[in-house]
Design goal:
Blueprint lengths: L1 E6 L4 H16 L3 E8 L5 H8 L2 E4 L4 H11 L4 E6 L9 H10 L5 E4 L3 H6 L3 E7 L11 H7 L3 E4 L1
Parallel strand pairs: 1-2, 1-4, 2-3, 5-7
Antiparallel strand pairs: 4-6, 5-6
Length: 155
């Protein structure tokens, strides 16, 4: 159902931790695939092979990598992620509720964080239908969320 587009970094432990948080959702069928988008970061190819993720090599900024990952995705929905912040327990509930709502609206998954997190929330990523990905979009997650008027999905 969901293709996770994970932007690689040189933080291999962070990438591995992010991927580990996706395993239960993959086993349950919520996550269909992980598309790991990388430039020349060392060790990423081995991580992709060991985890079963599909590796897409793209040089450039986050916007270029997000667009390439979304273009390679095969799921009905795309969830963008990075190595930091790592998803925490409970991330699936707002995503599943949103998908079950049937509106098809895009969402912005927000990390938990108390009062400070509510004032300046740190987004995990953007959730939107693959076919609704803006053509030629050259923007990072914040720009994308603003452009598509994503609804906040907090947990």
């Amino acid at each position: 159902m969901i293709s996770v587009v994970l932007i690689a970094s040189e933080d291999l432990p962070g990438l591995a931790a992010q991927m580990a948080m996706l395993v239960p959702a993959a086993v349950d069928g919520l996550v269909k695939e992980v598309v790991l988008v990388a430039g020349d970061e060392p060790g990423v190819a081995v991580l992709a092979e060991d985890s079963g993720a599909r590796l897409v090599r793209v040089e450039g900024d986050t916007a270029a990598r997000l667009a390439a990952g979304a273009g390679a995705a095969r799921g009905d929905w795309v969830l963008t992620l990075r190595a930091d912040p790592v998803l925490r327990e409970g991330w699936r509930e707002p995503v599943e509720r949103h998908l079950a709502g049937g509106t098809g609206a895009p969402g912005l998954l927000i990390a938990p964080g108390g009062w400070l997190g509510r004032l300046a929330p740190k987004p995990h990523g953007v959730l939107l239908r693959r076919l609704d990905w803006p053509a030629g979009a050259a923007m990072d997650e914040k720009g994308l969320a603003k452009a598509i008027k994503a609804k906040v999905l907090a947990y």
